[in-house]
């Protein structure tokens, strides 16, 4: 009835459960395990068997072990038959009772653990993992030791799953405080091969659990809080444990351990679940999302706008190239609200080129695994013919000159058909009028991405790469500074125009001393406006919003526009007023640097015959790059007109649905799926339990929006691929974090961590801005910055181009920067090596 566990135990996991099987693995590996017995799972299934076990079986067992280990405490641990498997750890789902020291206590503990099988928490966990066929629960009876220190050892680092590291969390006393999260443990990272200490972090260790005729949680005295609970020899012992477990059990193990009287014991073994495969079918990258899909996306925006990008920019382009295979692939997917681009799609798209020609700006989106697949993919020359025919098949929009004209015509159409509607009374639209306006904006949205699929995806990347290459080879621009200056100082973009107007607002504010004092002092928009209602500043302010209020720092129609949040513009003005006593017009230095760089580049060509041949080529190329840099900014400005109109149309239907009692709040409309939205506005019945579904989606969105999404998905597993800094940046100083160099230069200053436009009012002159990504609307504070750090984006992202525009040392691709860098921390940005240092 109660079985002793040993290396010879031969009972299926279906009856002794995951913990029991783990202990058998440890014993078979020859590792030191406290004595343990198992009450098999089949006993838990029948009332008669349970009653017999409680009365007779436990009494007989207790009599035997009490004689062998008089006065010893025991742990009763649940061990479900689906537990500790490769795809489900069940860690903490079922009950564990510690410190059992009597037969009556043992019976109570067994009843408690059996009951936990039917607990709501356990049922939910099994349902989520489709473990609905889990039958019964086994229990482990294990001698409990009283450790000096205990904790968890992982033979792979979940935060760096491909790094050769093991991770140890440790605290004083019983390990229960570590696994339950009730204390902040010491953390150690060791080199997997040699056991060298790579890093250690002192935990607070404020409490410890100890055995003293019962398990008691008590405060840890300050002296022991301030010292690491593991010595160097003990770390060596744990490293040896990791090696033995890996060699004899397998890789990626999660081990619970304890050290008592100088002796190391292993208490549990389970696989580390949810780690990425080192050979996934596909690798998906979030780095692609910098331009349009950087935020956590709500369901309705996903269904209404994302198809513009996927269908028009990607699938239809594949069709133009004759790539029916790619047209059937999913180039982009949303995972927990965040957009990821397919590595398989990326690889397939480059098979038209010889391997030596496949390097492009999108390389930085993917880890080495995908780039290896790019190089290994078989070249099919026939695909190049299809690629060459694509511009002819879409000749109305393609071609370097024609695409510029196509965008100009498209923007004019938006200004003629959409802009006049933005101030209409949307509530006065009939159902037919609403549908016609929706179809109109949807058609323009599709056309927008049919045009920019050439200018943004192909021409912009190609032209920038070519200019950088020719400046390096023809003009000896090895540092990249000529290139950086040639594309800066473009003051005729919509972004530059807006920034000039914000500077003008700040100068206007200076004419009103009372208003200026309040803004500099941090007064709210409402307070300042109420106190100075007749100030000339507000007339200029309202005119600015009338011109540019359709903008937002997000492409998601679920997010408000500037005109819905007029206080945001005051934050940009506030930053200007705090920076100087007199708001100055934006400096012309970047424009002058551009002219100087253009002249210098042409001078370096010389007057030889070859130089004279190269001169018109370089002039034409510089002009095209500048044209397509403007193109990049201006197309987004006009896209925002479409998104504002689409948002207003959707919100009008939301207001109608609220009046019908289908929705509670207008913003709930963005939680609907596309098919639900069109069904209910057409008069169909609301889906059953719609309110409950929306509550679930609202909670999911709040949870996802608040978390830092992983950079990659290996199939369906979120992961980071951290390589050693020295591998990618051999010259980095110790402790530096490597990213992607956006703009050359070196800057040191206080970090200003911001997440939204509303935070920009805190920016001060000399700050280093740390942000998730950069929208053109943020750049009014750029003249105040000494440096820039962003989490996403590549060398042609908005953050990169705009930092070069303003000559700000900048580094991108610093995953989790806004979470790990503390506001006002002293930070150095090295735009030459592409690194930051705290």
Automatic annotation (TrEMBL):
Q: Which domain of life is it from?
A: Bacteria
Span list, region Disordered: 580-601
Keyword Signal present in the record's keywords: the answer is no
Q: Indicate the segments forming the PEP-utilising enzyme mobile domain, all copies.
A: 764-834
Record's keyword terms, sorted:
Kinase, Pyruvate, Transferase
UniProt domain Pyruvate phosphate dikinase AMP/ATP-binding: residue ranges = 72-278
Q: What is this protein called?
A: Pyruvate, water dikinase
Signal sequence range? none
Listed InterPro entries: ATP_grasp_subdomain_1, PEP-util_enz_mobile_dom, PEP_Utilizing_Enz, Phosphohistidine_dom_sf, PPDK_AMP/ATP-bd
Q: Name one Pfam family in it.
A: PPDK_N
A single GO molecular function, which one? kinase activity
